[in-house]
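We were asked to recover a plausible sequence for a given structure. The inputs and outputs are reproduced exactly as logged, with field labels preserved.

PROBLEM: sequence recovery
POSITIONS: 161
GIVEN STRUCTURE:
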């Protein structure tokens, strides 16, 4: 399963948050001076992403890839604060790239990616999760916001993840 998790990481966030931002910014004719402090945003996004991938692998017994999803609803780690921290991490990485490279094209890519993630989550992932995990998903969805994190971690009633 480790190889599947690694491949899905390299293929999905590796492409959308790594390869594409570098290629797009390298070919951006409006690129200006970047902001070095953007490395903090980029590193923070990478930390969030890696933490979420780990939780999918360990707690969910699956990968981030839609063709090999977690077998269990992941409600540990950063998922106790927001339902979509992995997407938040990817968007932070792209924002970091945009600021670091001074790229308006990457800023546009970030906006488009944000809309694409919202559409995917709202109309594909959430209905699938509701069907797959039923009452467990309903309870989690009611308690944990989609994008803006809670201030306190959510815990499953009777359990302490």
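RECOVERED SEQUENCE:
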């Amino acid at each position: 399963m480790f190889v599947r998790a690694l491949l899905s990481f390299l293929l999905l966030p590796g492409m959308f948050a790594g390869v594409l931002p570098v290629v797009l910014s390298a070919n951006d004719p409006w690129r200006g001076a970047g902001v070095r402090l953007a490395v903090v945003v980029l590193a923070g996004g990478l930390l969030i992403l890696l933490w979420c991938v780990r939780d999918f692998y360990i707690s969910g017994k699956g990968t981030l890839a839609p063709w090999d999803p977690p077998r269990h609803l992941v409600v540990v780690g950063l998922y106790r604060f927001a339902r979509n921290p992995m997407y938040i991490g990817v968007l932070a990485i792209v924002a970091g790239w945009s600021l670091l490279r001074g790229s308006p094209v990457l800023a546009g890519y970030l906006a488009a990616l944000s809309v694409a993630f919202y559409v995917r989550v709202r109309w594909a992932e959430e209905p699938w999760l509701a069907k797959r995990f039923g009452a467990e998903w309903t309870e989690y969805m009611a308690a944990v916001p989609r994008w803006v994190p809670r201030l306190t971690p959510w815990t499953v009633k009777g359990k302490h993840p």
